[in-house]
Amino acid sequence: MNKHIQAPLIEEEICDLRAGDYVYISGVIYTARDAAHKRMQDALDQGQELPIDLEDNVIYYMGPSPAREGRVIGSAGPTTASRMDKYAPKLMDLGLKGMIGKGKRTKEVLDSVVRNKGLYFAAVGGAGALLSKCIKEAEVIAYDDLGTEAIRKLTVENLPVIVIADREGNNLYETAIKQYAK
Description:
This protein is of the alpha/beta class. 25% of the residues lie in helices and 27% in strands.
């Protein structure tokens, strides 16, 4: 099923999404990778506020390459999501609704997706140049000293992703293997 949704995520638009669905996201999402996640965890540990409002938002695990002249952003492909697994459950419990990356996630992350009625999406690895064309605006909003790992606010239009893990506990990486084995 192909579906167009808005970010921040709207319950009525995402409640019927299931693992395997093709989705196009438009709206505002955020980028954050390893170093930014560690800083956010440190801030939470110290009782500080996070630099972004997590409520119903999406974090794209991506660190862009430098933008070429006339472009908003450079290559914008996903990074391996498992590197954020120790941070993701806490962020989801604080309101994060979606994550975009590539690769498998731990049981703890998948459980937090179900518990928080969230979603884990995959973007196609190796397609960063194409994905960057969906990004209409990009602005560093926190941790500028981290360079490509700074938190960015992105305005995206029809960013193509696939639902990997859904609120019902379905995981495309598991079901696809079973279907292929048949």
